[in-house]
């Protein structure tokens, strides 16, 4: 039985898109149409679906879409050329390279070729460095989406103890940085595969955010009753019926012990998409 309050990321993302539509109209009055570019290498069905979703979102709020697709066996030079073209295109205010890239491409090298000013995902080392230093810049979309969702649902971060499970560069590590900024002022424990006795850290936390990519990792006995739990995990598993489905890092029984739950699906994913649009609109507003 779900007794936790469900923090609905889909509904909150819809609210944010309504707000963005108004900001995009104001930009149109100044003769500016924000443009989001996507670079997709290969034909992974999941990645194709995410990229399609991003362009649907753009159409909903009035952002122009710029799509670039390369075959799975694209050479590093072909990728470099596409990035150079988007870096130079004034109609493109920000763009993303859909991850994961095929194994023969060096992801870090590719991300470093993005003009930091057009880094809509906030994953360029310059922008991660700005986050470390507390300077303004595009923020990574998933961490930003989590903080925004908690803020809009009045989950107090100031003084809260937060256990973040996962130290990846796209979610866990930047999320720890975001939550410990002066404006958020949470106290964070960043847990990872080297953490001894994970449950002792999650049980001590007011808020537990799980981004480990391990289905069902967080079980009900690992949290303080009433804690706020955020499921960031999204792993494709094959069910007993032989069909693929996505599963989160939080065991369903957690919903009986947690005070509030950000579920998967319908939580962090839609917020990630909304933050991508926000990063592009902010960039266009800065001119
Ligand atoms: N360049 C990037 N690549 C990837 C990112 C990213 O932020 N930037 N994140 C993921 C994929 N992703 C966006 O690209 C993404 C994944 C899932 C969702 C989402 O809304 N999921 C749904 C559930 C699954 C579904 O219905 O398809 C949900 O949580 O409700 C949005 C975006 C890896 N690559």
From TrEMBL:
Keywords: Amino-acid biosynthesis, Histidine biosynthesis, Hydrolase, Methionine biosynthesis, Multifunctional enzyme, NADP, One-carbon metabolism, Oxidoreductase, Purine biosynthesis. GO terms for cellular component: cytosol. It catalyses: (6R)-5,10-methenyltetrahydrofolate + H2O = (6R)-10-formyltetrahydrofolate + H(+); (6R)-5,10-methylene-5,6,7,8-tetrahydrofolate + NADP(+) = (6R)-5,10-methenyltetrahydrofolate + NADPH. Residues 7-121 form the Tetrahydrofolate dehydrogenase/cyclohydrolase catalytic domain. GO terms for biological process: L-histidine biosynthetic process; methionine biosynthetic process; purine nucleotide biosynthetic process; tetrahydrofolate interconversion. SUPFAM superfamilies: Aminoacid dehydrogenase-like, N-terminal domain (SSF53223), NAD(P)-binding Rossmann-fold domains (SSF51735). Pathway: One-carbon metabolism; tetrahydrofolate interconversion. Residues 140-286 form the Tetrahydrofolate dehydrogenase/cyclohydrolase NAD(P)-binding domain. One of its GO terms (molecular function) is methylenetetrahydrofolate dehydrogenase (NADP+) activity. The keyword NADP applies. NADP(+) binds at residues 166-168, 234. It comes from the Bacteria. Its EC number is 1.5.1.5, 3.5.4.9. Pfam families: THF_DHG_CYH, THF_DHG_CYH_C. CDD domains: NAD_bind_m-THF_DH_Cyclohyd. Catalyzes the oxidation of 5,10-methylenetetrahydrofolate to 5,10-methenyltetrahydrofolate and then the hydrolysis of 5,10-methenyltetrahydrofolate to 10-formyltetrahydrofolate. Homodimer. Belongs to the tetrahydrofolate dehydrogenase/cyclohydrolase family. This is Bifunctional protein FolD. It comes from Micromonospora lupini str. Lupac 08.
């Amino acid at each position: 039985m779900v007794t936790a309050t469900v923090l609905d990321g889909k509904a909150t993302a819809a609210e944010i898109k309504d707000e963005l539509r108004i900001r995009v109209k104001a930009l149109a009055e100044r003769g500016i149409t924000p443009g989001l570019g996507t670079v997709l290498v290969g034909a992974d069905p999941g990645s194709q679906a995410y990229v399609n979703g991003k362009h649907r979102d753009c159409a909903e709020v009035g952002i122009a879409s710029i799509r670039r697709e390369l075959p799975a066996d694209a050479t590093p030079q072909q990728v470099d050329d596409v990035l150079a073209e988007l870096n130079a295109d004034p109609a493109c205010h920000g763009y993303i390279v859909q991850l994961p890239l095929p194994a023969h491409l060096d992801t870090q090298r590719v991300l470093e070729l993005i003009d930091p000013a057009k880094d809509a995902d906030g994953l360029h080392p310059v922008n991660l460095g700005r986050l470390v230093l507390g300077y303004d810049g595009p923020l990574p979309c998933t961490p930003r989406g989590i903080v925004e969702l908690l803020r809009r649902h009045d989950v107090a971060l100031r003084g809260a103890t937060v256990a973040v499970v996962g130290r990846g560069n796209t979610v866990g590590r930047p999320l720890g940085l975001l939550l410990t900024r002066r404006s958020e002022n949470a106290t964070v424990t960043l847990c990872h595969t080297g953490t001894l006795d994970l449950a002792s850290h999650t049980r001590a936390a007011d808020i537990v955010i799980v981004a480990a990519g391990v289905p069902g990792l967080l079980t009900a006995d690992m949290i303080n009753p009433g804690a706020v739990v955020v499921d960031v995990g999204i792993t494709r598993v094959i069910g007993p019926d032989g069909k693929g489905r996505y599963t989160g890092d939080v065991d369903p029984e957690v919903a009986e012990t947690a005070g509030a739950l950000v579920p998967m699906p319908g939580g962090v994913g839609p917020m990630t998409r909304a933050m991508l649009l926000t990063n592009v609109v902010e960039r266009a507003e800065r001119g």
